[in-house]
Amino acid sequence: MANPKIFSLILFSVFAIASAKVFFEERFEDGWENKWVVSDWKKDENTAGVWNYTSGKWNGDPNDKGIQTSEDYRFYAISAEFPKFSNKDQTLVFQFSVKHEQKLDCGGGYMKLLSGEVDQKKFGGDTPYSIMFGPDICGYSTKKVHAILNYNETNHLIKKEVPCETDQLSHGYEDIPKEIPDPDAKKDDSELYVYPDLGYVGIELWQESKEDPADSDAEDEADDAEGEDSDAETKAGGTSEDADDNDEDEFHDEL
Fold first, then answer.
1. Pairing relation of β-strands 98-100 and 142-151?
2. Closest CA to 41 of 116, 104, 123
3. What is the pTM of this model?
4. Compositionally biased, Acidic residues: which spans (predicted)?
5. Those residues with Cβ within 8 angstroms of residue 125's Cβ, 6 or more apart along the chain or in another chain
6. If the chain, 255 residues long, is cut into consecutive pieces of 10 residues, what is the mean pLDDT of each piece?
7. In principle, which of 9, 82, 120, 192 could form an S-S bond with 24, CB 3.0–4.6 Å?
């Protein structure tokens, strides 16, 4: 049985391209724990994991550290607050880098941006969020990136199948991928992309052996998002395929 530890040397960056303003960045240097709050989520079930602060097994600099999960069959949640801002009229970039120190059997790590007021000690899989993305890996069949956007209190799962990296190297992207606007896309709300009250970043992570997989809260959210989309499309009339295409076009145009 493998012990899949996810080592997150998270260069957390949240910034806007238009103004080149960095709203939040974390390199996990000395004093990082003063900014982050470890959640009590799952402690009452004795399934809450403990974060390690380490440079990992393979590093070029022992002082270049990150946070690392410590054991299997555990849930992990941690969050940090930053000054609230709105992404209106700005291209928002939310990115991180991660290194898997061992080959993964089953696990998921989700980065979330949250709005409003959040009880950080209770932050977990059921906490409402604005934006969520991250890898979901289980066996050979599931190796993808989840991406969910909340609009009008409904979660919308990305319609594309985005593969994720599964090797033991560090991964991050320096360049921002360019999108070509779709002139035929239908827009039902000019401020579809706007999150006016972003103020927290959170990490929600679960891992276990593929021989005895537990359900992921994020997987449930994704299923709910797909179900909500389907229900909305049925009520609105027309085919679900057409509605799905419209949803995807709207989000890609605005974000």
1. unpaired
2. 123
3. 0.73
4. 214-231, 241-255
5. 41, 75, 77, 204, 216, 217, 218, 220, 221
6. 36 64 89 95 95 86 88 92 93 83 74 96 96 84 86 91 67 52 66 94 80 46 54 36 38 32
7. 82
